[in-house]
Amino acid sequence: MSVWDDLVGQEQVVEQLVAAARSARVVLGESGRSGDSRNSGAEEQSGSSGMTHAWLFTGPPGSGMATAARAFAASLQCTSPDLELGGIPGCGFCEGCHTALIGSHADVESVRTDVLSIGVKETRELVRSASMSPAGGRWQVIILEDSDRLTEGAANVLLKAIEEPAPRTVWLLCAPSVEDALPTIRSRCRLLVLRTPPVAAVADVLVRRDGIEPEMAAFAARAAQGHIGRARRLALDAGARERRAEVLKLPLRVADLGACLAGAQSLVDAAAADAKQVAEEVDTRETEELRAALGAAAGVGGRMPRGTAGAMKELEDRQKRRATRTQRDSLDRALIDLSSFYRDVLAVQFGAAGELSNEEMRQAVERVAGESRPEATLRRIEAVLACRTALERNVAPLLAVEAMAVALRAG
Ligand SMILES: [Zn+2]
Description:
Elements: H1 11-27, H2 42-46, E1 54-58, H3 65-77, H4 95-102, E2 108-111, H5 120-130, E3 140-144, H6 152-163, E4 169-175, H7 183-186, E5 190-193, H8 199-210, H9 214-224, H10 228-236, H11 238-247, H12 250-253, H13 257-298, H14 308-349, H15 362-371, H16 374-392, H17 397-409
Parallel strand pairs: 1-4, 1-5, 2-3, 3-4
The site of zinc ion has 7 residues, from helix 4.
């Protein structure tokens, strides 16, 4: 299992990153071919397959941007002896790969924000640690998972750091699309575009890595439309499947105004329940980890070290802030499911052959398709999109979803 195995359906991206990791060894003068080291530096970095200091990973949510960035970070820290024999950087077994992947490598910092925006102060902090020499003497790698959440001021701080990088510093920025990054930052990064992984590739990885039954894996991959994390959750969690089914009842419920409003309420409730479940799992794990870490510091006497209460409080605050984001993500996910239903309706109306995203609901899809015209379906898809936009602009969730449900009714 190399570090690249976790990237599902991204062969082209893997090829580019492997080439860059090889070239990075040349830059460090580590390549076995002695003549190569003289080619390092600026010339090497200008090539499209070479190493460079700033990367922008983009792709649809769930396509594995952060996974790709982590794999690349690991390959840059890979110390496998096989590399001398032409092996692929990112073996997955050596100390460098292993610690980079689990997040404990001294020279790999991964920033995942729980809040809705990243400010100037945090970014300055990050730039400072980025400028330090790598402890292991290789690369100082900073992964910024949500670079689209940088405030404009923060982006400008980052821009300066990218413009004048320390020689061994590598920035790996992730954003849903290239438009989410400031043009000035974008133009200084090498762009990597991940695609939505094919359904079959997602199903395959669920079977192979998570030991999920093929039939369930196929359903989950289809329903999640290429979002790997979502597919895994659907496959493993019956509650998540039930809540999804609840969301997809809405199209059959929008007969009259009262039913619309009730339907909107249950959609919002289902999304909130989903978010709560996700948040609880993560919160519990984090709290236990922090307790364990503090407990270990307490030593034999069992007395908790000074600052324990502060650290716990800080974690709780962070978890509360994150809850807002998790709820928003979960509701957005529900709306994506809903629009997939109407896209299936449209496919049936146009007589398209093949499997539906919601194949298990074919009867309901066909019923809605038979009762309306394609123009109405397009309007409904637009209503769902408008609701997502409204939520992005902080409209109260129930209000936005109610407005959408009413628009869905007008067939
Ligand atoms: Zn390795």
